[in-house]
Structure prediction request, 185 residues.
Amino acid sequence: MDRKTALNIVQEYVKNENLVRHMLAVEAAMRFYAAKFGEDQEIWGITGLLHDFDWEIHPTLEEHPQAGAAILRERGVPEGIVRAVLSHADHTGIPRQTNMEKALYACDEITGLITAVALVRPSRSLSDLESSSVKKKWKDRAFAAGANRDEIAKAAQEFNIELWEHVGNVILAMRTIAPELGLAG
Prediction:
């Protein structure tokens, strides 16, 4: 499986530009952590890119990502990636065992909160965003209410990284593709 094939799957199933941007952000964060841990950046990146590919066609917890896993298997996606996609959702009951699975869980929710914080800044950019700005908004539960802070904190702990270091890392990763995310200012 290569990135182009994975991107084709995303483009086939996802029409919402913000959802595509979310998956690109998670991909960038996954590539960052793969490099940090000496893992395969392509596999980790593809995992991040594909993790929510079925959300538009399976927008319920009863279906996502379980029903999408069957599609990924039909497309020849390696089982390690499929398992990681399944484990990124607590409701599937698939325990996160590998570093890649834990990274995906840790990178998923936080990218949404980081995006929301960047969008309310005057610059509308990641270039001047620091984790301290995310920390300020963290306390306001009404801000980006859809970003599950308890899950974000749990995921960082499970991934064995301090939360605000993690936020800084994900910001750095997202900066590398800021234009594609609409966050270049």
Remarks:
- The chain has one domain: 3-181.
